[in-house]
Amino acid sequence: MTEKKDLQDCVEELRWERAQCSFDVEELTNIFDGGKEVTARRRKIEHLICSDPAFKDEVPPEYLSHEDLYTNEVRKVTHLVRKLEEHNISPREANTTQISSMLKDGNPFGVHLSMFSNALTSLASPEQQQQWLHLAEKNRIIGTYAQTEMGHGTFLRGLETTATYDPDTKEFVLHSPTITSTKWWPGGLGKTSNTAIVMAQLYTQGKCHGPHPFFVQLRDYDTHRSLPGIILGEIGPRLGINSQDNGYLRFDHCRIPRTNLLMRHSQVLEDGSYIKPIHNKLSYGTMVWTRVAIAYGCSKKLACAVTIATRYSAVRHQSELVPGKPEPQILEYQTQQYKLLPHLASVFAILFSASSVIRMQRQVAADISKGNVEFLPELHILSCAIKALSAQDSTQGIETCRLACGGHGYIASSRLPSLYTSTTCTITYEGENTVLLLQVARYLMKSYRAGLEGSPVLPSVQYLTASPVMHHSPPLSNQALIEAFKISSANLVKETESRLYRRFNSGQNFHHAWNCCSVALVRCAELHSRYYMCEKFLSTVESIIASAGVKSVLQNLCRLYLIHHIILNQGHFLRSGTLSAANLSALEEEMCELLTRLRPQAVPLVDAFDFRDELLGSTLGAWDGRVYERLYEEAQKSPLNKTDVSKAYHKYLRPLMKSNL
Question: Which residue among 44, 364, 369, 447 is least packed, with the fewest CB closer than 10 Å?
């Protein structure tokens, strides 16, 4: 059952906002969650966690030292793991909730519960899974995923850590030959994990076979002391996620058994013979899953930020819209609506796009089990595209929400700063966005040339060489706008490919030609990725089974999203001739009308995200709208307020004031 809230318990402004709702909020919540049953289960789990006093912080985390912050989060996460086990709640179910918000600034178990376990599932052989997976699931071992190095991140082929097979002892010798080969950044590596999946260059019989995954024990299972040949620690404070012990790792000729090479796709036999995988991208499964999970996480964090900023904008009164009249809610200003509503729409765009990639991943996994890897490259590229755009959109959106809250958005208790710092890192981890977009661009160029030559290309890129579809719908209909995206993307790919090969054919080395065209190539990837997200948003809204009210508000959000991104990228549409200056002017005017139409639904829309106050964790965004009381109450928690006169006065200020300089 949904939690019943009395409208009399919220401030007058929010009562008025909620009274204007034109759709069933609960129905939209179910869509956002992925089903009525999912919503009910999520609420049950969240109530279980939020009612447990063990998750309450006696001192706000912002006031803790680095070590105390980490220790406090380990306390909470270990309690959480036990509680989930006690109530038979799986990690998958836990991921449908917002209980991770209880861990204010990062989760020391985050990589263990996601990438480590998933890597064992997708990369380990059945025998290896039997050996290690149940230990990971029962938290008998805590693992991390050690891929990124100090000197190399996204460029896997450049990794320097080596794993050299010794046939005499049937062991791999792991070694970090340079300072730049130090594993750097893995979450949970510093102090929490006792095992890791380590990516290292596999050498056997004098030949390098590229990066491969190895299961490596890092610490003694009883004492937790680091093992011989292993040097590891924590890398120090970051912009955010400081309660997660991001770490470093070096190997000094550390030996592990041959059978610790994860052998689902490739093997090294006892004599050192190497058996290669049936497809060189099969090991990408972990990264695909992780990138889609990042997109889901980004949509939830953006939803949190939009909820906070929208509710605050309904409560906050500022300036005079009409001279001499009372100060209006700042949500009445069109500029404020423009800051918030497109990002509210973006939450659904990211969610629906990520869901489409997940469905594809399931199909590809089924195909791979039958020996068919045809769609694996497309899945890899779509995961790169969705991850890059969702990371970019959510980071920019959260920062815009923070700015939309003025000075109060700068206060830690608003939660907007920590939402920003825990999201902006997604731009660089699990594939730096520019590098991922260049991978998308390479796929676009390759597919375009294949299409020109009459070779088959995969579904998501068939439009690059297909004839434009003539629609009989109005020239600025949703389908017409999607077609404009499609043609503009195809034209940009064609133009960039021509520029690239003009350089190549004139004698320039292809790799230098590629670098000289890389800005345009990134734009190709961005426009293609945006087209994909727009198309998935529209197709989902058109096919969704919902009441008239919910369908209408989703259609308005989708229309706003399409127009917003056309206006932001209008140069592409003008260059391709798909939209005229007059079209763009009409769309800009319609966008303003959509802002007006959606403005009365803004608070009900963020209510549909259904964030409990305990999990939203914001003085500005609570359901009841008591912004100013909460800000004042939170300020009283500052340790500086425990005394009227601080130690600094007696030690430094008073001597200065009395010195008569």
Answer: 369
List helix spans (H) across 405-432: 416-424
Question: From the CB of residue 280, how many other CB atoms can be counted at a distance below 10 Å?
Answer: 13
**pTM, rounded to two decimals:** 0.93
Chain segment 432-477, per-residue pLDDT in tens: 999 999 999 999 999 999 999 989 888 999 999 887 665 566 889 9
What pLDDT is attached to residue 105? Answer: 79
Class for domain 112-277, per CATH?
mainly beta
* CATH of the domain spanning 283-458+480-630: 1.20.140.10
Candidates 17, 378, 430, 526; catalytic one: 430
Q: What's the whole-number average pLDDT of the chain?
A: 93
Contact (CB, 8 A) for 161 and 175: yes
pLDDT at 341 over 50: yes
| CATH 2.40.110.10 boundaries in the chain | 112-277
Residue where the block lists tokens 């190095």: 149
215: part of which helix (H) or strand (E)?
strand 207-217
> At 422, phi and psi to the nearest 5?
-85, -5
d(CA 638, CA 139): 36
313-331 residue pLDDT tens: 999 999 888 898 999 999 9
Query: Which structure tokens are listed for 527?
Result: 């426009």
Q: What is the DSSP string of 248-281?
A: EEEESSEEEEGGGB--SS-EE-TTS-EE--SSTT
Query: What are the tokens at 30?
Result: 């179910």
Residue with tokens 């069933």: 24
CATH 1.20.140.10 residue ranges for the chain = 283-458+480-630
Residue 233 forms beta bridges with which residues?
248
Encoded tokens for 139: 């938290």
Name beta bridge partners: 300.
none
Residues 243 and 69: their CA atoms lie apart, in Å, by 6
The per-residue pLDDT for 101 is 81
Distance CA 331, CA 602 (A): 9
Beta bridge partners of 212: 200
Q: Is 430 a catalytic residue?
A: yes
E strands present in 506-586: none
Whole-Å CA distances, 399 to 54, 384, 410, 475, 498: 32, 23, 10, 35, 37
pLDDT tens, position by position, 569-606: 999 999 999 999 999 999 999 999 999 999 999 999 99
**Residues 6 or more apart from 149 whose CB is under 8 A from it?**
159, 160, 161, 180, 181, 182, 183, 184
Read off the DSSP letter of residue 334: H
d(CA 541, CA 199): 41
